[in-house]
Amino acid sequence: MSALLKASPSTSRWHTALRQFIFFSIVLFVSAGGTWIMADILWRGGISGVEICMLILFAPLFTLITFGFVQAVLGFFIMLLPRDPFLITNCLPKKPAAPEDISMTAIVAPIYNEDVTRVYEGIRSIYLSLVKSSCADKFNIFILSDSSDPNKWIEEEVAWVELCKQLNAFGKIFYRKRSVALNSKSGNISDFCRRWGAKYRYMLILDADSVMEGETIVSLARLMELNPRAGIIQSVPSPVQADTFYSRMMQFAGTLYGPIFQAGLNFWMGANGNYWGHNAIIRLAPFIEHCSLPFMPGKYGSKSMRFMSHDYVEAALMGRAGYEVWLAYDLGGSFENLPPSLIDSAKRDKRWCRGNLQHSWLLFAEGLHPINRLHLFLGIMSYFSSPLWLLFVIIGIFHFRIESYAVKSFDYDIGVSPFLDEVCGGRQSLILFIFTMTMLTLPKILAVLIQLGNRQWSASHGWRLKIWLGMIAEHLISALLAPIHMLFNTKFVMHVLMGLNVPWTAQRRDVSGVDWREAIITHAWHSVIGVALAIIAWILDRNLFYWLSPIYLGLIFSIPISIILADQRLGERLQKLGIFLTPDEIKKPETVAHLEKNMKIYESLALSGGRPQSEPGIMQVVLDPYVNAIHVALLKEKRRIPHRITENLKKLGDRLLAEGPDSLSRREQKILLMHAEAMSHIHEKIWTVPESSLAIWWQNAMKHYNSLSIKPSTPLYR
Q1: To which H or E segment does residue 177 belong?
Q2: Distance between CA 90 and CA 88 in Å, rounded?
Q3: What is the mean pLDDT of the chain?
Q4: What is the DSSP letter of 9?
């Protein structure tokens, strides 16, 4: 064990500091050079207040571009090595893990109004993959529900029982529904830690769409054992199961470009890494002791402000406690899904934007490591840079207008540095433009060059040409989408700064297309701004009109672009042609293949009528004795319920049966569902009272229930 610990990169802090010095020195040098050239361009003929504003905006924005460029280039050179010497996985022994090599680990899956079939089939695939290892007894799976929809609640309970029956996994897979969903996902995890955290050494967190191979999970737990100072080890989820044009393009980009950026990221952050909220393993004792989320000052509406993006904060608090956070980007076997459309991606970004901007409260918090402060700052700038870019464009147009009518002074051609005139030959603007475009494009070219030597990409016919075509197509489409994202993020930032609430909503993870009405409502203002920008540029100067075309073209055509990108049939055609194809599609991982097989069986049974359509959960729990018994058994027993509450519950139950479910609000339905005695009483009463005393809705529901040839609780597949 001691030899393995010595081999771990976690012991070489001085080496990490040297790498960080090299990385940030290069970033500083390149960004300072670009800013110097920009200052020389603006200085000619004297510098005005408008030009000072442009330079102030240009410096941080150009530095962000430089940051990504240097990270990708360094990652490229690292991947040319036989093995990345800075990986935490270098300490993993080659022999398979034995049960005594790892400790008890909880795999937790927080869910909120998700597609129940997709979530549970993902858990089925994970469990079966774990069973194949010799360490399966070291893992328990917890499904932690915060679903606010009563129908989802009942569906989750029934699905859990059926899953455990089919896998013989009672005592291995657990389900818990919180009665009060405080603090969203972070509160859900905190509640788990309070109740069961003392029973486990590690916790591996999944997202609702996460799938992980058993070997990967075992390796993460083993890495924790080998590195006792590791507090969090983050795997890198690979995007899978993309079907629309947009999601396939993003899946291709993430798979192709991701490795060099991840290698570069690991190079400079070392043991001061970040946490992305899922597909990561956490050491529970320090997490419970040190990572409780602080309150933010002030109020948000009528509630105290809390962090929505908890992951960055928890990584920073773990680092402050003296524990390490690592990125195991080479581990593989970790998967997730992507938003199916541009609109769904924007909805997710709206929530992330508020969460990231909240991190500004922690930038100067006491005791945080400088790298963790940088992670928080970069998360903020990932959204705040959009309004800065928009402001830069607006000021640039205003500056162009001023310069067009200004009388040139005798020293107009004299810049801030005569040296640049000699080196650049008076073409500073062109050189800066080419250099910026190179920094945006070269990382993608380097990523392709790296993958051309990867055998995983070479299984399809004409794969080299298809990779290049996919890269070019992705690059051009991303250029069209950039101004759309800029306006989206600017709007989200303004919403947050104005104090408007951003609710936590369930994410739509599959879509057959975006309807024209939704696209028009969402993108109409983009088109209006794009047309206005084009008209202004045309009036001012033809050259300005052509220079701004990459911005206004994407905005003007944002509606049809959004519709096309959300087209699932077009995505399937591209897949057949081999465009945007990834190695995980050429040879599917076992867990993903198993998940897709079961999902296809489910869909085919639903379409053929072999399985009844999903019924409202309130109908099942009231009518079906099996479902009612499951629900009542899972409820926490209330010792003493005041008479006033029991009377109110009785009135709600009577109204439910006499007037139908629509007579009760969602909140009233949840109140009934939370009381075992009330649900038992309602179930007994509906089968004993005269049918004429029931609402027409219930009379039809009973006829439908009695006519079913396959009950909702019948196992369909394994």
Answers
A1: strand 173-177
A2: 5
A3: 86
A4: G
> Which pLDDT band holds residue 236 (cuts at 50, 70, 90)?
very high
pLDDT the model gives residue 51: 87
Tell me how far apart the alpha carbons of residues 60 and 399 are, in angstroms, rounded to a whole number. 19
State which H helix or E strand residue 108 sits in.
strand 105-111
**Confidence (pLDDT) at 715:** 41
Contact criterion met (CB below 8 Å) for 280 and 235 = yes
Helices (H), 132-183: 150-167
Q: Is 583 helix (H, G, I), strand (E, B) or coil?
A: helix
Where do the domains of the chain lie?
1-101+215-513+566-611, 617-707
361 with 296: CB under 8 angstroms?
Answer: yes
Strands 280-283 and 202-205: antiparallel
Residues in contact with 231: Cβ distance below 8 Å, sequence separation at least 6, in sequence order:
282, 283, 286, 287, 318, 319, 321, 323, 324, 325
If you search the block for the tokens 């599959």, which residue do you land on? 510
Closest by CA position to 541, among listed 669, 709, 397 = 397
For residue 709, the model assigns a pLDDT of 41
Q: How many CB atoms lie within 10 A of CB 77?
A: 13
What pLDDT, on the 0 to 100 scale, is given for residue 267?
A: 95
Distances (CA, A) of 20 to 16, 63, 217, 285, 427: 6, 16, 30, 29, 34
Beta bridge partners of 235: 328
Higher pLDDT, 47 or 615: 47
Confidence band for 612, pLDDT divided at 50, 70 and 90: very low
Where do we find the tokens 């603090």?
A: 183
610 pLDDT higher than 70: no
Residue 705's pLDDT is: 77
| 507 confidence band (pLDDT: 50, 70, 90) | low
Question: Residue 320: is it exposed, middle or buried by C-beta count within 10 angstroms (0-12/13-18/19+)?
Answer: middle
What's the CA gap between 249 and 471, in Å, rounded?
9
DSSP, collapsed to helix, strand or coil, labels residue 19 as helix
Is the sign of the CA dihedral 435, 441, 447, 451 positive or negative? Answer: negative
Check residue 712 and give its pLDDT.
43
Checking DSSP bridges between strand 299-300 and strand 303-304, what pairing results, if any? antiparallel
Burial of 480 (0-12, 13-18, 19+ CB in 10 A): middle
CA distance 515 to 104: 48
DSSP conformation class of 272: B
Q: Which residues on neighbouring strands pair with residue 234, listed in sequence order?
A: 280, 327
Per-residue pLDDT, 503: 59
CA 635 to chain CA centroid, Å, is 32
Which positions ≥6 away from 589 have C-beta within 8 Å? Answer: 213, 240, 333, 335
What is d(CA 141, CA 154) in angstroms, rounded to the nearest whole number? Answer: 19
What is the chain's Cα-based Rg? 28
pTM of the model: 0.89
Residue 716 CA to residue 500 CA, distance in Å, equals 45
Q: How far apart are CA 5 and CA 93, in angstroms?
A: 11
Q: The tokens of 418 are what?
A: 């005569």
When pLDDT is cut at 50, 70 and 90, the band that residue 611 belongs to is very low
* CA 278 – CA 269 distance, rounded (Å): 19
Mean pLDDT of 331-356: 92
- Quick one: which H or E segment has residue 441? helix 428-451
Q: Which of 232, 235, 231, 241 is nearest to 215 (CA)?
A: 235
Rounded CA separation 546/218 (Å): 55
Tell me 97's DSSP state: P
Find the mean pLDDT for residues 215-222.
Answer: 96
- 157 burial (CB, 10 Å; 0-12 / 13-18 / 19+) is buried
Categorize the per-residue pLDDT at 541 as very low, low, confident or very high, splitting at 50, 70 and 90: confident
pLDDT band at 3 (very low <50, low <70, confident <90, very high): very low
Farthest CA pair distance, the chain: 100
Q: How far apart are CA 173 and CA 143, in angstroms?
A: 8
* List of E strands, 398-469: none
